[in-house]
């Protein structure tokens, strides 16, 4: 997770995007803050809860409006928050850490579709939905993988559809094939049966789960590596 965060921080640092701290919270410095500074402030124990909540709310709001750069910010913010969860599920289930990480961040993407950025305990909600995505019993997972009851995200605002945009962008930039994007969207997002979707998309029998895990890892890599592609559209 440290490597993931480091790559995301490098991408958002290169974007040159800044936000005015005082516009987010009176507890933040009264100056322009780089995105890396905002991520660091959100994770410092000395930052007030109100300021942390303001950073998270703004990051989620912007991620819903403009996925490429701001989803990279969300991943940078979430990575240390989910490190323990990755270790826990790997230890309990024997699953590959890359698969757990992919499922976690796809859970975050799912949560971002409809969450209200102004809701109380926003970070806790995102973490619960991410954990629920990993905990869902999935075909081909070890028996211990899925022992925690699933929780579904409660849409508190109209869905923005931004997950579909991210998948479309990943296809356009040749990170995913169209079949891989469909496999993720129709099973993770729409909740259709993996075996049925994999067969319809032409994946070999019994390889739907491994194909989806591979596609999820590629999608996370895309989010890490492309944070600065849309920077000019996000400048304030």
UniProtKB/TrEMBL annotation:
Reading the lineage from the top rank, the first entry is: Bacteria
| Name the UniProt record assigns to this protein | Sigma-70 family RNA polymerase sigma factor
The organism encoding this protein is Amycolatopsis balhimycina DSM 5908
């Amino acid at each position: 997770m440290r490597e993931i965060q480091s790559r995301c921080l490098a991408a958002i640092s290169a974007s040159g995007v800044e936000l005015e701290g005082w516009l987010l919270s009176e507890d933040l410095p009264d100056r322009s803050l780089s995105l890396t500074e905002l991520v660091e402030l959100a994770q410092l124990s000395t930052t007030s809860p109100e300021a942390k909540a303001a950073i998270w709310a703004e990051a989620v709001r912007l991620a819903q409006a403009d996925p490429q750069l701001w989803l990279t910010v969300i991943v940078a913010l979430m990575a240390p928050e989910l490190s323990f969860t990755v270790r826990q599920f790997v230890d309990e289930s024997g699953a590959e850490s890359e698969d757990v990480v992919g499922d976690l961040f796809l859970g975050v993407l799912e949560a971002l579709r409809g969450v209200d950025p102004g809701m109380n305990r926003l970070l806790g909600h995102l973490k619960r939905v991410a954990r629920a995505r990993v905990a869902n019993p999935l075909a081909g997972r070890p028996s211990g993988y899925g022992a925690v009851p699933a929780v579904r995200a409660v849409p508190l605002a109209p869905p923005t559809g931004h997950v579909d945009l991210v998948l479309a962008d990943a296809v356009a930039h040749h990170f995913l094939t169209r079949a891989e994007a469909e496999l993720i969207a129709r099973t993770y997002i729409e909740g259709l049966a993996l075996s049925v979707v994999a067969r319809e998309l032409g994946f070999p029998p019994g390889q739907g789960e491994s194909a989806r895990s591979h596609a999820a890892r590629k999608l996370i890599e895309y989010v890490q590596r492309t944070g600065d592609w849309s920077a000019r559209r996000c400048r304030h």
